[in-house]
Design goal:
Blueprint: H1 5-22, E1 23-32, E2 37-42, E3 45-46, E4 50-51, E5 71-75, E6 85-89, E7 110-114, E8 120-124, E9 129-133
């Protein structure tokens, strides 16, 4: 009788068990946002708290938390699930609707982030088009902004109020025409001087024009005429 056979069978069973647990697929059951760990449900079994994989986690940091019921893959070195790491998410049939608005033949060129509130950040490398559809406010704070150029047309539409605040000087250079249209009033205010220079200046009002000067009012011209 081979006295080592029971041990060999036990070792073989342990090896098979470890191999079976090296790669598991389950769904996120619990999330600890403080420690960046989750518990994953695999069948009827629940793992211990496991870290999830991210792109960067040192001086440069990337953060995007997993969610409850998200399908994930767990890798356990040597089949030890206590040392497991959640590698990432797996597409499920219910997630296909996230790109259902993109033609199948175009999806290979699309890089998209779509959030639960409907916000979409998307780049189409074939059309060279970046799209940001934000379902809320956008806040950007920068120390400087050097170099912004649109080689084609640029259109900015604001459906409510727009405020631009400049701490020092502001220069706007337009090589052709500038059109400013206000549905109601337009106001230009300066604490010091306002200077307008042009080859010709036309003031056309369908009603009255009022000019007020707290000091001297001067009209200098080669010809000055007034007609009814």
């Amino acid at each position: 009788m081979n006295t080592l056979q029971p041990f060999a069978e036990l070792a073989s069973a342990d090896l098979q068990n470890r191999l079976a647990k090296m790669i598991l697929i389950g769904t996120v059951a619990q999330v600890d946002y403080d420690t960046a760990r989750v518990k994953v449900k695999v069948g009827d079994w629940l793992t211990t708290w496991l870290p999830w994989l991210t792109n960067r986690a040192s001086h440069d940091l990337n953060w995007q938390a997993l969610e409850i019921d998200e399908q994930v893959m767990v890798f356990s070195p040597c089949g030890d699930t206590a040392q497991g790491v959640v590698l990432g998410s797996i597409y499920q049939q219910t997630q296909h609707q996230l790109v259902s608005d993109i033609a199948v033949e175009e999806r290979q060129n699309i890089h998209r982030f779509k959030y639960q509130d409907g916000t979409v950040i998307e780049y189409d490398r074939a059309k060279h088009k970046l799209k940001a559809d934000v379902n809320g406010d956008v806040e950007m704070n920068v120390n400087g902004f050097d170099g912004s150029e649109a080689k084609g047309n640029l259109k900015v539409t604001v459906k409510e109020n727009a405020d631009v605040s400049v701490g020092k000087n502001m220069t706007a250079i337009v090589t052709e025409n500038v059109v400013i249209t206000a549905g109601k009033s337009a106001s230009v205010t300066a604490s010091d001087n306002i200077e307008v220079k042009a080859k010709a200046i036309l003031l056309d009002a369908s009603a009255d024009i009022t000019i007020k000067a707290g000091g001297t009012l001067k009209l200098n011209g080669a010809n000055i005429s007034a007609q009814e």
